[in-house]
Amino acid sequence: MKQKTLLGAGGLLSLLIIWQLSSYWLSQRISLASTLAPLPTLDSFIWLIRSGEIFPHLFASLQRIFVGLSFSLIVGVPVGLLLGFSKKLEMWCTPAFQLLRMISPLSWMPIIVMLLGVGDLPIYFLLAFASVWSLIISTSAGVKSIDPQWLLLARSLSASKQETLCKIVVPAIAGYVLTGLRVSMGITWVILVPCEMLGVNEGLGYFILDTRDRLAYSELMAVVVIIGLIGWGLDSLIRWALVKGGK
Where is the ABC transmembrane type-1 domain (predicted)? Predict the structure, then answer.
């Protein structure tokens, strides 16, 4: 554990050194690039936290992530269950799902804005569309991993479908669903920033555009760091749940 911590800290320190050297090299050619260095970024980071200016944007982004992932869970887990239990349905749906899954969610942006307008609704749709596929796939894989003997035992004991679902299926697929949720979280967090450039006035993506327009590049870099830290924290939370669930 100590070695893992030291190696991780060494990797972060190396990244910091590369960041400093890169910003110094760029500043020799573009004077404004000096504001991208770690120290100006740290000053802006502290100011954003102390002033509280970043928090409305952060909470707006987290709310959109929560809503998008909630829709994904509501749709993805039941669909994954159906595909896992029905081989014919899986063969019917897989080609269409694979086709849709390979389309970048951002390519839908012009169409969704035309249909739903600007605001939160198109962002919710794009986040849910991007994240639902990994939940469908992981849930279906979890169902297929269930030992048929357990299902046979449930039938022999005259267990109802609800009892079988709650006592056998859900515990068996929980780890798979959490793994799919972890992948979905990463996808939604990555595409959230461009999605928040769809005419909203709050969110980390909007704030990045705002700092660019104000030429406040140290604030922009601070927001980039915040995005990385929050994403890391969310991923760590799901990994912790996976470890706890595996015990």
Answer: 58-238
